[in-house]
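User: Could you go from structure to sequence for me? I need the amino acid at each position, not a summary. Structure tokens:
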């Protein structure tokens, strides 16, 4: 696993032992960031279920202003920290050891906003839609922001969640990427 583009391009990231953390494959990550495109520049990024930090680190390498990594696993938090040191991107990063629901509640109370939200829950995670709704209701995604969800192709995420509308969806074998944005108000 490596950083694909930007200032840390080519840097190899530490990967976990065992199969508790499922890092995003390089080709899926490349497609994800091709779709996000220039929106990443100066964006505040929230990386939920961060695992190795692979997605948030890629965002930082490509010019994101800052990234907040959230994971409930102590070993994942340690791995993210090691990968931020390897890539020299730690100055623009924050790491929280927390479950995502609690972190979202805390962020809402802090009135934090993000232009890009990356959500990569474990396959079989059945609360992705409720997390998306919590993100929407908490107004954590900035107006015009983009939310990218990596999920198993058998997970059926809705087209609309609150004010969010699925704007794109791509399939890579058993992996799906679903993108959500605020709906445009009709005149």
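Assistant: Here is the amino acid at each position, in order:
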């Amino acid at each position: 696993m490596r950083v694909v583009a930007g200032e840390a391009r080519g840097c190899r990231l530490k990967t976990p032992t065992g199969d508790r953390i499922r890092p995003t494959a390089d080709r899926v990550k490349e497609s994800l960031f091709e779709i996000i495109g220039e929106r990443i520049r100066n964006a505040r990024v929230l990386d939920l279920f961060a695992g190795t930090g692979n997605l948030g680190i890629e965002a930082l390498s490509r010019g994101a202003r800052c990234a907040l990594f959230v994971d409930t696993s102590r070993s994942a938090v340690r791995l993210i920290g090691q990968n931020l040191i390897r890539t020299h991107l730690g100055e623009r990063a924050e790491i929280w050891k927390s479950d995502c629901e609690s972190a979202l509640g805390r962020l809402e109370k802090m009135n934090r906003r993000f232009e890009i939200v990356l959500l990569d829950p474990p396959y079989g995670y059945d609360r992705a839609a409720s997390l998306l709704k919590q993100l929407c209701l908490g107004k954590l995604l900035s107006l015009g922001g983009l939310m990218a969800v990596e999920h198993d192709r058998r997970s059926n995420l809705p087209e609309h969640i609150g004010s969010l509308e699925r704007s794109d969806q791509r399939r890579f074998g058993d992996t799906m990427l679903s993108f959500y944005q605020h709906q445009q108000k009709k005149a």
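One structural detail worth keeping in mind: The longest strand covers residues 141-152.
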